[in-house]
Amino acid sequence: MVSRKENVEKYLVEHGIKPSFQRISIMDYLRTHPTHPSVETIYNDLSPRIPTLSKTTVYNTLKLFVEHGAALMLTIDEKTTHFDGDLSSHAHFFCLGCGQIYDIEMDASVRERASESDLFTITETHLYYKGYCRKCCEKSDK
Amino acid sequence: MVSRKENVEKYLVEHGIKPSFQRISIMDYLRTHPTHPSVETIYNDLSPRIPTLSKTTVYNTLKLFVEHGAALMLTIDEKTTHFDGDLSSHAHFFCLGCGQIYDIEMDASVRERASESDLFTITETHLYYKGYCRKCCEKSDK
DNA sequence: TACCATTTTGTAATCTTTACAAATTTGTTT
DNA sequence: AAACAAATTTGTAAAGATTACAAAATGGTA
Question: Looking at the predicted structure, is the pLDDT value of residue B41 above 60?
């Protein structure tokens, strides 16, 4: 029986990241919270459990994750950067009303078509939509 | 014979924007510079010609354009927001080496498929890729 | 001209992110 | 276990982008 934390540890090692306590905690948070959290949110949620945690560490760690391809950086929201621990192919929807980011399906062809071009070496594909989610539509009749 | 500025003026009015001198200048800049400029770039380039121009005005004006659907805000680059005066359906490529944003073709299906969903009211579709452009590939053999 | 509404401007404040050096932790060698 | 070097974490200060806000300028109208 392998614990969740052990799986996270293995995941980090597989991506060439030395698994420290903080790194494991942050990656575990990302994977158990598929809500595209910001640095602020991650810090606020982990802080009580890891009292010594520094916001700089959260920044550094997430940057490390992104550089090693262990997490994705989402820049949909111009206010703050959000992070995604789900590397599977999917698109995002950003609600202009409540600011929430939802996962939505993405057709594989979007990725494939682009890689046909030989003008660029593509490493990441991002597809997202903006608008209003159902809740916000009902509220304001957008 | 209609001047370029007159066309810009008409374009603004069509989008419900009162065409002031600054607004016309900024929209004209956007349309004649399809390079996805940042506020900084626009300000620096227009400043010599419009000595009284304030950076705040550039910020305000671009926000106004985006709200009225007269320009697009690009958040590909997490460092700064870029703006696009080209409303036609296209995708973007962001070079991680030089930071430049290139236009690339976008299949219409990307937009259509999403609007099928009735969970969200979609107002904008953004598709972009990250990686290295040819110049940067050659430089560093990425 | 006098008046009101809108737009622009400049400065200060806010917010996010990064730089950096000190402190801590980890791993290794003795 | 002690000593040491390397890597990681931390806290503070700085940088950079954006916004708030009030004063100044502009435009249109009675």
Answer: yes
